[in-house]
Amino acid sequence: MTDPIRTESPRTESIRTEPARTEPILRVRNLYGRIAGQQVVEDVSFDVPGTGVTALLGRNGVGKTSTIRSILGLIERTGEVTFAGSRVDRLPTHRIVQRGVGYVPEDREVFAKLTVTENLRLAERDAHPNRALVEALFPDLVQRRAQLAGTLSGGQQQMVSLARALLNTNRLLLVDEPTKGLSPKIVGEVTEALLAAAATVPILLVEQNLQVIRRLADRVVVLSGGRVVFTGDAADLLDDPELIQRYLGVHSGADPADTTTDAAVPA
Ligand SMILES: Nc1ncnc2c1ncn2[C@@H]1O[C@H](COP(=O)(O)OP(=O)(O)OP(=O)(O)O)[C@@H](O)[C@H]1O
Ligand SMILES: [Mg+2]
């Protein structure tokens, strides 16, 4: 896939020397994660291909966020995590992030008392941050550059959070429930921004909105009780109402006019 923004990046050479695109960018094997002595991720194994969106799914509390935090070394973990061909499961979080992993956490976590511009400047890690990409994806933020982030709507804060990750040339983005609690219109805007972002970087996306998953996901990994219970092409799950009911506990929402399935999946 051509990518004008990345082509202009000074890091193009390092990207070209990476393994072939058929290699997964992230390989997780037998990952276990623990919080305060409690096992919250159990023997999780899956791959994230080097392009497109892989959705990490499952009902509330099954361990989606904990899986991402285990990959990043933010919680105690064991198992194998291979990123861009190298093991990272013994590295501290900052070393993993430096290798090119962007994280957009579940609760957005913008600096409320700083302006939009200040939030974005603090996130810039590269010598040549992708400001043009961010401004093209989030024109609303350009308008609001002097506004304190704490006074933005939830959707606008989500865009700041995504923009912070996209400013740097990452080799993988981990995005946790970016549409949670947003109105349908803003969900659509965030979805389109993610679709554009996915043309520049592979994404592991935690998401519960089936319409967003339909629009974005190529592959799906489904967790239940901290374990992987299904992996496959997104269509294999999304076109099977029985599987959706079994794994996610919601109806398929096949009718695009039906927004009732946009609600968070019940526990
Ligand atoms: N800080 C914590 N201390 C103790 N237990 C925790 C903590 N964070 C999460 N857990 C537990 O770990 C399990 C997995 O939680 P996790 O947040 O990873 O699930 P999730 O799939 O992301 O859920 P959600 O859909 O609500 O975001 C749950 O049983 C949860 O109660
Ligand atoms: Mg979560």
Compile the SSE list and pairings.
Layout: H1 4-8, H2 12-16, E1 26-35, E2 38-48, E3 53-57, H3 64-71, E4 76-83, E5 86-87, H4 93-98, E6 101-104, H5 116-123, H6 131-137, H7 139-143, H8 154-166, E7 172-176, H9 184-198, E8 203-206, H10 210-216, E9 219-224, E10 227-233, H11 234-238, H12 241-248
Bound molecules: adenosine-5'-triphosphate and magnesium ion.
Family: Belongs to the ABC transporter superfamily.
Domain ABC transporter: 26-250
InterPro entries: AAA+_ATPase (IPR003593), ABC_transporter-like_ATP-bd (IPR003439), ABC_transporter-like_CS (IPR017871), BCAA_Transport_ATP-bd_LivF (IPR052156), P-loop_NTPase (IPR027417)
Shape: globular
Mean pLDDT: 87
Please give the largest β-sheet: 6 strands, mixed
* The CATH fourth-level homologous superfamily: P-loop containing nucleotide triphosphate hydrolases
End-to-end Cα distance, whole Å, is 38 Å
CATH architecture: 3-Layer(aba) Sandwich
Percent helix: 25-40%
Instruction: Give the distinct bound molecules.
Output: adenosine-5'-triphosphate, magnesium ion
What's the CATH C level? Answer: Alpha Beta
User: What is the CATH topology classification name?
Assistant: Rossmann fold
Reading side by side through the largest sheet, how are the strands ordered?
6-7-8-3-9-10
Structural class: alpha/beta
What proportion of the residues form beta strands (DSSP E)?
Answer: 15-25%
SSE sequence, one letter per element: HHEEEHEEHEHHHHEHEHEEHH
